[in-house]
């Protein structure tokens, strides 16, 4: 209390001046309020911020929350824990008067009797719980989906053979660079037009975001969604791709979905187009997982599914694709995107994008693609052999492998290279070293 003796002595002096009518009552009140504010700020011990510790009796109005929120980010961890961070306006009714800040909710997907899952919020070391409806459909259905949108990448004036949607992690700059300079380098091809769009979410680090924005300015092939870039957000990324094609590249004859560690023998792709292998409608070519043959993991594993999802089932009830490489006819994409509006969200993207949505659309034909390989060492061995490697798709996860496979594919497919490449590539054929 000794720390308050100085402001208290001043208050007593002001009171005596008022009693002697040396100052007015209004002036005295103003002076006392100023002294009280300064005194409690400078002389009082630091007071920890006040947090809400109970929401049991608090009715959360989601519309009001949206009005009070500057932005919200969904963060999904690999272990299944999910965080929704709300950055509130200073006027937010969730906080006292003029105190701005952040309110952090988390939920853990566990079986519940009710339709709402529990959300817990860690505030100053304490938890509180409230039942709150969870997002039911993909986040990329929202109006503010595109944080980065290169809408002119796929010009309507182009006779687009196919557009490639690459699911890529935000920090994989070198992988994207390798793809641009090898099998997806649209500047070196003729007779067929190809464009590539790299799909990303939001990175954890601001410095990574700056680099992505610079990359987008340089190459104009980045599409960024308003969600955190994580494994459990791949479904959001996939719907983002469907939406982008529907709105900005709907004239593409074929759409290829792949990952950033996949090498495509693009010359064989062109050959299949020219020989009418893909001359169909409402078709998907991929590594097919037939209905009732793919086991649902319940106990453990990377794809462990809670018992509340697909209850009483041992296998997924739809045919779907292993999504590392999928070819779709262009007429399907808008229908798949529209189907996501009424198909409840499921975080395993292969099942959702190429199973549940396809099943909702109906009438789609699956065909198995041959010569796909996910063993990087076998791919290197195949392309290094003296005979032409028959691999259509190969894994290229390690640094430099994408470039090595590309150079070997050129040397092994000279006739196709000459048929589908322009002078920019042809003039370097004799000088290329593997």
TrEMBL record:
<feature type="transmembrane region" description="Helical">
    <location>
        <begin position="23"/>
        <end position="43"/>
    </location>
</feature>
<keyword id="KW-0325">Glycoprotein</keyword>
<dbReference type="GO" id="GO:0016758">
    <property type="term" value="F:hexosyltransferase activity"/>
</dbReference>
<dbReference type="GO" id="GO:0006493">
    <property type="term" value="P:protein O-linked glycosylation"/>
</dbReference>
<keyword id="KW-0328">Glycosyltransferase</keyword>
<keyword id="KW-0472">Membrane</keyword>
<keyword id="KW-0812">Transmembrane</keyword>
<protein>
    <recommendedName>
        <fullName>Hexosyltransferase</fullName>
        <ecNumber>2.4.1.-</ecNumber>
    </recommendedName>
</protein>
<dbReference type="Pfam" id="PF01762">
    <property type="entry name" value="Galactosyl_T"/>
</dbReference>
<dbReference type="GO" id="GO:0000139">
    <property type="term" value="C:Golgi membrane"/>
</dbReference>
<keyword id="KW-1133">Transmembrane helix</keyword>
<keyword id="KW-0735">Signal-anchor</keyword>
<keyword id="KW-0808">Transferase</keyword>
<keyword id="KW-0333">Golgi apparatus</keyword>
<comment type="similarity">
    <text>Belongs to the glycosyltransferase 31 family.</text>
</comment>
<dbReference type="InterPro" id="IPR002659">
    <property type="entry name" value="Glyco_trans_31"/>
</dbReference>
């Amino acid at each position: 209390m000794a720390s308050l003796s100085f402001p208290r002595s001043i208050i007593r002096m002001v009171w005596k001046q008022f009693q002697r009518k040396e100052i007015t009552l209004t002036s005295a009140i103003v002076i006392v309020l100023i002294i009280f504010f300064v005194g409690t700020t400078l002389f009082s011990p630091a007071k920890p911020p006040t947090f809400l510790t109970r929401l049991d009796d608090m009715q959360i109005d989601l519309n009001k929350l949206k009005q009070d929120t500057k932005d919200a980010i969904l963060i999904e961890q690999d272990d299944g824990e999910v965080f929704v961070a709300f950055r509130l306006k200073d006027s937010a009714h969730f906080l006292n008067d003029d105190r701005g800040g952040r309110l952090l909710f988390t939920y853990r997907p566990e079986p519940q009797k009710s339709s709402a899952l529990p959300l817990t919020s860690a505030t100053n070391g304490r938890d509180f719980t409230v039942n709150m409806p969870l997002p039911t459909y993909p986040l990329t259905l929202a109006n503010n989906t595109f944080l980065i949108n290169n809408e002119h990448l796929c010009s309507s004036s182009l006779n687009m053979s196919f557009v490639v949607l690459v699911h890529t992690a935000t920090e994989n700059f070198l992988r994207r660079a390798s793809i641009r300079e090898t099998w997806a380098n649209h500047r070196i091809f003729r007779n067929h037009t190809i464009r590539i769009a790299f799909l990303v979410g939001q990175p954890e680090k601001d410095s990574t975001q700056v680099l992505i924005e610079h990359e987008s300015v340089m190459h104009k092939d980045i599409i960024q969604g308003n969600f955190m870039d994580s494994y459990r957000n791949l479904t959001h990324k996939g719907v983002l791709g469907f939406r982008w094609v529907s709105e900005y590249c709907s004239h593409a004859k074929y759409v290829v979905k792949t990952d950033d560690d996949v090498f495509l023998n693009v010359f064989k792709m062109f050959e299949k187009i020219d020989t009418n292998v893909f001359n169909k409608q409402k078709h998907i070519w991929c590594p097919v997982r037939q209905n009732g043959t793919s086991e649902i993991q319940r106990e453990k594993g990377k794809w462990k599914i809670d018992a509340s999802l697909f209850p009483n089932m041992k296998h997924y009830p739809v045919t779907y694709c292993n999504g590392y490489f999928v070819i779709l006819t262009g007429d399907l994409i808008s229908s798949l995107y529209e189907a996501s509006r009424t198909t409840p969200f499921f975080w395993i993207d292969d099942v959702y994008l190429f199973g549940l949505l396809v099943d909702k659309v109906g009438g789609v034909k699956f065909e198995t693609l041959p010569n796909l390989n996910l063993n990087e060492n076998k791919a290197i061995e195949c392309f290094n052999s003296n005979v032409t490697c028959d691999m259509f798709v190969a894994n290229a996860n390690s640094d430099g492998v994408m470039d090595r496979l590309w150079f070997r594919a050129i040397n092994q497919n000279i006739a196709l290279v000459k048929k589908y490449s322009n002078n920019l590539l042809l003039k370097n054929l004799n000088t290329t070293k593997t």
